[in-house]
Amino acid sequence: METRSWFRLLSAPEGTQLEALLGFAAARRAHYPTFLLVQHANTAPVSTAEPRGKPSRDDRGPSAEEFIAALAPHLITEATTDRWPGADANSASACVRFYRLEAQTARTLARVGSLAAFAPPLPEDLCILSNDKTPWLVSSTRANRFHLQLTGEEQRALAKSLPWLQLAPESDPPHSG
């Protein structure tokens, strides 16, 4: 297995850039078709039921209820835990939901508008898993840190496909949960 290295995203992708990054991830055969999102206990609970006609939080993206409802058919499992990729050592327990990563869920994630927008009341700490089930993309919204763990081939493919993506080698990788 090829060695992976950690890189920090110098800015959180937004809009079409976020859509392109998520599309790249969904299209890659090197990824385990799973991502996770975290709902912290100290944020308002979000039901996985259908939304009840509540308006979107604004024109930039879906309300938390709409977002969770759109992802609900793709839910694999959920668990309450204090460990997930990107969690720090002092993280309190949270609901961690695992979903299938496919074109439709990538589009739903992109509707949020920015990697930095995965914050309450929306679920946060988006993590996309690699084929070996290790983190590929890790976001820690509360720390405003976003990372990719890449093989050399993935780094070259990203540079070719998404030349605007600015990465820096990371000497302090995120906690791997």
Which blocks of ≥5 consecutive residues have pLDDT under 50? 45-59
- Helix share, percent: 10-25%
Give the class from helix and strand content and strand pairing.
alpha+beta
Globally, the shape reads globular
Q: Rg to the nearest angstrom? A: 15 Å
Gist of the model:
The protein is an alpha+beta fold and 177 residues long. It is built from four helices and eight strands.
Walk me through what this model shows.
With 177 residues, the chain is α+β, with helices and mostly antiparallel strands. It has one domain. 22% of the residues lie in helices and 29% in strands. It has helices spanning 15-27, 64-71, 103-110, 152-161, and strands spanning 5-9, 31-40, 75-81, 94-100, 124-130, 135-140, 145-150, 167-169. The protein has an 8-stranded antiparallel beta sheet. A hairpin with a 4-residue loop joins strand 5 and strand 6 (135-140). The longest helix is centred in the N-terminal third of the chain and has 13 residues, at 15-27. It is globular. The model is unreliable at 45-59 (pLDDT under 50).
Supply the key terms:
single chain, about 180 residues, alpha+beta, eight-stranded antiparallel beta sheet, 4 helices, about 20% helix
Question: Secondary structure elements and their pairing?
Answer:
Elements: E1 5-9, H1 15-27, E2 31-40, H2 64-71, E3 75-81, E4 94-100, H3 103-110, E5 124-130, E6 135-140, E7 145-150, H4 152-161, E8 167-169
Antiparallel strand pairs: 1-7, 1-8, 2-4, 2-5, 3-4, 5-6, 6-7
